[in-house]
Amino acid sequence: MTAKTLQMSDALHAYLLANSLRETPVQRALRAVTSRMPRATMQIAPEQGQFLQLLLRLTGARRCVEIGTFTGYSALSMALALPPGGRIVCCDLSEEWTAIARRYWKAAGVEKKISLRIAPALQTLQSLRGPFDFAFIDADKANYQNYFERCLTLVRRGGLIAIDNTLWYGRVLDRRDRSADTRAIRAFNRRLRRDRRVDIALVPIGDGLTLALKR
């Protein structure tokens, strides 16, 4: 246990949610449905969704891109925070998972704010034109650096890129873990630490969320 950053017990996490989380009924329903799925851990934590909302409001974001949508909780959270006329381009490969997302986006009345592209994300990113205000990366780890480079091109100066899973369940510290995903996260973190094109902070929320502000 470090004295610098408090680790979360289940009870303390429950307290955090009870005393800070402001979910809509649709968000809660989507989170409940996703929690029963085999790959439920792919969904961001609810406090992360609320944190993303705060970031969008702080930066005045209107145009966003998301890489990795799953069942749509993060996109739903961000869409709810965007002003009228705000838009999110969502990149994913799964028709099955995003079909769930579409239902809940519609139920929340934000479906017109979201443009879903079912295709390899790098292909979609190459077709987009900036400037974007905000990007959220939460997809296959092997391509994190490629996604980041393209997002850095698309995002305006002063825009923000948020990258999920950068603590990778603590596996970044396990020298025995030589899996491709773990090695990719380690390499990405090392490279970003030296990248002077951005100002960065790795926030210990959820599974680690790195924020990169384009200079």
How would you sum up this structure in a few lines?
The chain is of the alpha/beta class and 215 residues long. The chain has eight helices and seven strands, in the order αααβαβαβαβαβαββ.
Topology of this structure?
Layout: H1 10-20, H2 25-35, H3 46-59, E1 63-67, H4 73-81, E2 87-92, H5 95-108, E3 114-118, H6 121-127, E4 132-137, H7 144-154, E5 155-164, H8 180-193, E6 198-203, E7 209-214
Task: Give structural notes.
The protein is of the alpha/beta class. The chain is 42% helix and 20% strand. It has helices spanning 10-20, 25-35, 46-59, 73-81, 95-108, 121-127, 144-154, 180-193, and strands at residues 63-67, 87-92, 114-118, 132-137, 155-164, 198-203, 209-214. A seven-stranded mixed beta sheet has the order 3-2-1-4-5-7-6, sandwiched between helices. The termini are far apart.
- Assign the CATH topology: Rossmann fold
Give average pLDDT, whole number.
Answer: 96
Strand content range = 15-25%
CATH architecture call: 3-Layer(aba) Sandwich
Helical content band: 40-55%
- How far is the first residue's CA from the last residue's CA? 35 Å
CATH class division: Alpha Beta
Topology, number of strands:
7
Summarize this structure as a short list of keywords or feature phrases.
215 residues, alpha/beta, Rossmann fold, 7-stranded mixed sheet, 7 strands
